[in-house]
Write a structure and sequence with these properties.
- The protein has 2 domains: 5-135 and 287-360, FAD/NAD(P)-binding domain; 137-199 and 237-281, FAD/NAD(P)-binding domain (3-Layer(bba) Sandwich).
- Helix 1 crosses helix 8 (334-348).
- 21% of the residues lie in helices and 23% in strands.
- Strand 4 and strand 5 form a beta hairpin.
- The radius of gyration is 22 Å and the shape is globular.
- The protein has helices spanning 16-27, 43-46, 78-91, 176-185, 211-217, 228-234, 244-249, 334-348; strands at 5-12, 32-35, 96-97, 102-108, 111-116, 121-129, 136-137, 151-154, 169-172, 191-194, 200-202, 205-206, 209-210, 238-240, 253-255, 258-262, 265-268, 273-275, 278-281, 285-286, 315-317.
- The protein is an alpha/beta fold.
- The longest helix is centred in the last third of the chain and has 15 residues, at 334-348.
């Protein structure tokens, strides 16, 4: 069997985090590969619903070296983001290897060995895990108590209202995803939304300016999770452009936390019930790093890192929510953490000469 390909750096995941990391590694002149389990870049975006629209304007959504096309004050759709990520990978000729799911990462002979699903393997001196926050869909256990005739899907499987059968639909989850999906459904059917915990609603625009303009102006986007304000914000989810009042105007009926189910009936925390034909679980995701055979978590299973730098020399994470700031997992701000990780990579292996990309950049 031939020896595995060896790289300076292996990047796992070809979403915005992995592609931005690739840009930085190209600037350093390093040999690297971006391993993507799916058959195309931006796989997490391809599994979101058809009408998804970002809550950040295009002027903020570009990755380093390439502006996001279109009206800078408008909000891009899911398909625009996918097309942009494809263009980004092509523009900078990033070495994305699709269909390459990483099944294990382990230490071997002073470097890292990455086992792929097809029995192949890759070796690298350093590794960046850029798989993002959308890993294992979270669904409450009581979902199994619903009648099999009730249509159920996690939000990751929802595409558009036409997929659902006739009858009342319940969306469970009071985040941005839950509110957006519920408001879309309410235009054509009886729609209910279960909100387990109240979130702070923020308007999309204030005094004619986008919310993120104000957040940048006030320096809030630069507050790290190590600051007092950052610690407070990191534990509080916010609704951007959505609100309970807006949902009600759209025809959505609001409920408290869903706590149980039987047959076609969902039970809420206050004892009220609702018979449903469909249930959409916009209940988030959980991380799964069990495939990394290295000491990266604490006794409670929580990932241990400092701005993406783990205690395992040469192993990094990128694109985690609040990895450093509010923008760490957002398209237009992941570049800051990517640059930081690239600097740490260079500190461990400073020999590679930096390569200028000025001739290939377009704008930013």
């Amino acid at each position: 069997m031939p020896a595995p390909d060896h790289y300076d750096v292996a990047v796992i995941g070809a979403g915005q985090a992995g592609l931005t990391m690739g840009y930085e590694l190209t600037r350093q002149g390093r040999s690297f590969v971006i391993l993507e389990a799916a058959d195309a870049v931006g796989s997490a975006w391809r599994t979101r619903w058809d009408s998804l629209t970002l809550f950040t304007p295009r002027r903020y959504d570009g990755l380093p070296g390439l502006e996001f096309p279109g009206d800078p004050d408008g909000y891009p759709t899911r398909d625009e983001v996918i097309a942009y990520l494809e263009s980004y990978a092509q523009t900078f000729e990033l070495p994305v290897q699709t269909g390459s799911e990483v099944r294990a990462v382990r230490s071997e002979n002073g470097s890292f060995a990455l086992d792929l699903q097809d029995g192949e393997a890759v070796e690298a001196d350093q590794v960046v895990v850029a798989t993002g926050p959308f890993q294992i869909p979270r669904v409450p256990k009581f979902a199994a108590d619903l009648d099999p005739k009730v249509f159920q899907t996690h939000s990751v499987g929802y595409r558009n209202p036409g997929e659902l059968p006739d009858g009342p639909v319940l969306v469970v989850g009071g985040g941005n995803t839950g509110f957006q999906i519920a408001e879309e459904l309410a235009a054509t059917r009886e729609t209910h939304l279960s909100v387990g915990s109240r979130q702070m609603p923020l308007p999309q625009r204030i005094a004619g300016r986008d919310l993120f303009w104000w957040l940048g102006k006030l320096g809030i986007l630069e507050k790290s999770v190590d600051t007092r304000l950052g610690r407070r914000l990191s534990t509080r989810d916010t609704l951007i452009g959505s609100s309970p009042r807006g949902a009600k105007r759209a025809g959505v009926v609001l409920h408290g936390r869903a706590v149980g189910a039987s047959g076609r009936t969902v039970v809420f925390e206050d004892g009220s019930t609702l018979d449903v034909a469909s249930a959409i679980w916009a209940s988030g995701y959980r991380f799964d790093h069990s495939w990394i055979d290295l000491p990266i978590t604490d006794s409670g299973g929580k990932l241990v890192h400092r701005r993406g730098v783990t205690d395992v020399p040469g192993l990094y994470f990128l694109g985690l929510p609040w990895q450093h700031t509010r923008g760490s997992a957002l398209v237009g701000w992941v570049k800051d953490d990517a640059r930081f990780i690239a600097e740490r990579i260079a500190e461990r292996a400073p020999a590679a000469a930096e390569t200028s990309l000025e001739g290939a950049t377009h704008g930013k």
